[in-house]
Amino acid sequence: MSTTYEGGNFDVIVIGAGHAGCESALAAARMGCDTLLLTINLDAVAYMPCNPSVGGPAKGHVVREIDALGGEMGRNTDKTYIQMRMLNTGKGPAVHALRAQADKFAYQHEMKKTIENTPNLILRQAMVDELIVEDGVCKGVITQTGARYTAKSVVVTTGTYLRGKIIIGDLQYESGPNNMRPSIRLAQHLKELGFDLVRFKTGTPPRVHKSTIDTSKMEIQPGDEEPRAFSYETTEAIKDQLPCWLTYTNPETHELIEENLHRAPMYSGQIEGTGPRYCPSIEDKVVRFNDKPRHQIFLEPEGRHTEEMYVQGLSTSLPEDVQLGMLRSMAGMENVKMMRPGYAIEYDAIVPTQLWPSLETKLVEGLFTAGQINGTSGYEEAAGQGLMAGINAARKAQGKDPIVLGREEAYIGVLIDDLVTKGTNEPYRLLTSRAEYRLLLRHDNADLRLTDIGHEIGLISEDRYQRFTKKREQVEAEKERLHNTRVRPDNEDVQSVIRETGSPELTEVIDLAQLLRRPELTYDHIHRISPAPEELSAEVREQVEIQVKYDGYIRKSLQQVEKVKKVEEKRIPPTIDYHAISGMSKEAREKLSKIRPLNIGQASRISGVNPADISVLMVYLEQYHRVLARTSE
Amino acid sequence: MDMDTIAAVATPMGEGSIAVIRVSGADAIRIVDQIYRGKQQLSTVDSHTIQYGKLVDPKTDEMVEEVLVAIMKAPRTFTREDVVEVSCHGGFVSVQRVLDLILENGARLAEPGEFTKRAFLNGRIDLSQAEAVIDLIRAKTDRAMKVALGQVEGKLSKLIKSLRQELIEAMAHIEVTLDYPEHDVEDFTQNLLMTKCREVETQIGRLLMTAKQGKILREGISTAIVGRPNVGKSSLLNSLVQEEKAIVTDVAGTTRDVIEEYVNVRGVPLRLIDTAGIRETEDIVEKIGVEKSRQVLQQADLVLLVVNFNEQLKEDDYAIFEAAKGLNVIVIVNKTDLPQHIDMNEVTKHFPNQPLVMTSVREEKGIEMLEEAIAKIFFSGRVQQEDMTYVSNARHIHLLRQAEEAIREAIVGIEGQMPIDMVQIDIKKAWELLGEVIGESVGEDLIDQIFSQFCLGK
User: Fold this and answer.
1) Block means of pLDDT (10 residues each) for chain A, length 633 residues?
2) Are B41 and B121 part of one and the same domain?
3) Does the distance separating the beta carbons of B121 and A616 come in below 8 Å?
4) Residue B155 shares a structural domain with residue B304
5) I need a surface site. Which of A91, B245, B258, B313 has the fewest CB within 10 A?
6) B128 touches chain A (CB under 8 A)
7) Same domain, B372 and B310
8) Are B118 and B16 in contact (CB under 8 A)?
9) Residue B453, C-beta contacts closer than 8 angstroms, at least 6 positions apart
10) Are strands A343-350 and A165-168 parallel, antiparallel or unpaired?
11) Residue of A nearest to B419 (CA)
């Protein structure tokens, strides 16, 4: 390290300007903190080293939540996408999911511009080598070029840069994503500070030249005719959309892979990192599911102003020549030109159970981590954590309590609680099935769930909040009206609308809410039978329809939440010594000492802690409080 | 953990003439009120009073028990919550029925030590007792675990595991279509899901049926030995008892003035009704034989009807024949060591399809035949012991009922054309409840299943 100099003092420093870092820095700056955002390469701000898409089930929900809390990902996507699709429209509203094909270059530029134009925020190119830690408190960072920056809190978002290593066949070299410089010294430093690190692996497929593929042999995958937006602020949709293309692997592809398995690093033992099950390489898929005659391959444009196409489904670390052979074995790709080879990348992550639910580390006060360093995978998962880490780093700097989202409140809450309570032994991806209250965490109601919080912490403008509260009032009023308006069987106008839907005619007086619950009817039918006194927006109508139609199931979920809430409210003092509690199993004592859950609810979700242990813990806590009360008397 | 309403038997099982079932929690009074019929609604009576009344099954309005109900409102109670204590007859059957009824109507079976725990958490018990409470929870839990594990080993566990596997495969399939909408997995159709749900519903229903049969095995087939005085009832009883030397329990239900004896005949447990009566009438008060027979017949699942080989049929015999008509009867013609005076045609005319056994209890002849006949009746019927899976633990029955309910709601959802992800809520609940029966945790199972069953990736 060169001689150091004083670089300046900040409230919050964010290391890394990927999807987590950008959200962190923007949130902190917008909350009024003097914020410094450091990244190894300024051309890699908000970079998408893997697939050019944002959203999908659970992930798209997270983007909506980020937007409702005042984050950037939704807005930035809406400004730059090349295709937008609502997925799962044939299923229930809870799993409707928006997914955008991103223009990864436009995405980067737009995000960089936003950051550059945000007050209180400085963006600077620098490699951070060390943290300044005094008495277990993080006071700042030191860069490779010798700058000492001090701050009240620091957020680390190193992605796959941390001791990154790229592997293609038998070729290996130290590297961040897509040949960026890796962050080596910081990994060592985190270890020295006492953090437990794990080695994870992920991968990316090759890219090909668009003009060398024959799309006539593929299926077209167009965007929606009426594209929806991620952000509640977006008013204009991008109508000019680009399609994706679908082709398949075939026996020839699989044969080629099998013949070359001995050259695959995954099987020759060169890769030590744990890869994600949900995102296996093509060689992994062929080996594990060898009865499957073909696998889907989607060709996705990387942007509007490039010919590069991303080959989704073909993530691989096989040697370059094998990759080319695989590509050319597929229909429509016979003469394809490969532009970049796919690769596997290994990187260091910290064991996320070392974090509080605020994403502050237990080991070093004032130090927060977010994104892939916490063992997750995916831009959206990173951005969601980045936003929360930024908010909490800012609140720490301002002397305020952290914001922790509940599992019943947001997918972001599920994600962070899973990480800090259960940990993960593979790169963690959000799935809707990870949420026990999936029906409450819908794409459509992210604003109803989170705008109050976003407003309270200062990330939602007054103007937007006004519009939101108006929407909320309209929804409530309209629901009320539907419950209180009755229709009679002798009303021929009503019967004719009902007949039209194929639903049985009325035989008795019922209210409009009951009528709307019939599977054949939508809000539009109700509107025809009895229009609302004032013109309602599409969002309000959608919300009313969902809330009324699925009221029974929603209520069931709310009851579950209510049951669990009581234990979530029972707080555990952080100073508690679990080893002093008799009658608790050894495993439970060790796990609890390590995780240090904040409340009984979190404690009960730790694997290896059984209900009897929780009972014992509750009794002990009661005893603890009484002793405390007695000694203070 | 959460403070819902809990219930459990507060007195030792099978050891007293009166049993107490304790219910504690905010809904305690409401729950018992639903099944109680007495002079006043329990919700209107004063705290710390005792009411006399009947418990009925609200679904059928059938009377279940005569009870005394003590109402104690919070906070002056053991747990500092509303507490209702139901006192009923101490026989195993009645206690179980009352507890079942309370659980069906909204209470949850208490965990070991839970009343004491609540008492402590609500500040009722002194600090010095805290350690004891912890030990109690621990000890009872360990013991309960052992008992529960014993219960679910083997067939029951296997069966539930296979039901869960069915469900989780369907769930994983559904989840994949939700989380990977563009993946080339065919949608799990509503029809297919309906078939699966119905299958599981049937299986759970079958298991719950065995709960009843398991009860028979545990509690015995109530068996009456009838016949006019002096036909050899008493010696038959003695011979059955001696033969097996396997008296299970000897419960004196003093409120009913009946003594029950248990014998095990070739694996079939018989609960012999009114054995005291037999002994009395045989030796002392012969006259009331017929009356007594009529009474015990009312309660019997199996009737051992004894006649005398050595005497002609008398008026009393015919009266008993009449009373036993249509019941599950084994006719025993006793005293074959003596000369025949009985008209066998008359006997077979009355019981043409019932098994008939010739015995000489004195010479120990024919007893084996009788035992065979008993075993045959039991095993050739609905129950085949070897292949049977029994559910007998109250907790398991309760969980299975809830699982059945959840599956039914899933079926209703499918019929109502609800989106598949909502139907999944109930299916998942059923799957979790089944998991609780065999003590399998929820955890990451579903996610694991998704990734092992389907090939997904970017």
Assistant:
1) 88 98 98 98 97 96 98 98 95 94 97 98 98 98 97 98 95 96 97 97 96 96 96 94 97 95 82 74 87 92 97 94 97 97 96 98 98 97 98 98 97 98 94 94 97 98 97 97 95 93 93 94 95 93 96 92 85 89 85 93 89 82 79 68
2) yes
3) no
4) no
5) B245
6) no
7) yes
8) no
9) B169, B172, B173, B176
10) antiparallel
11) A92
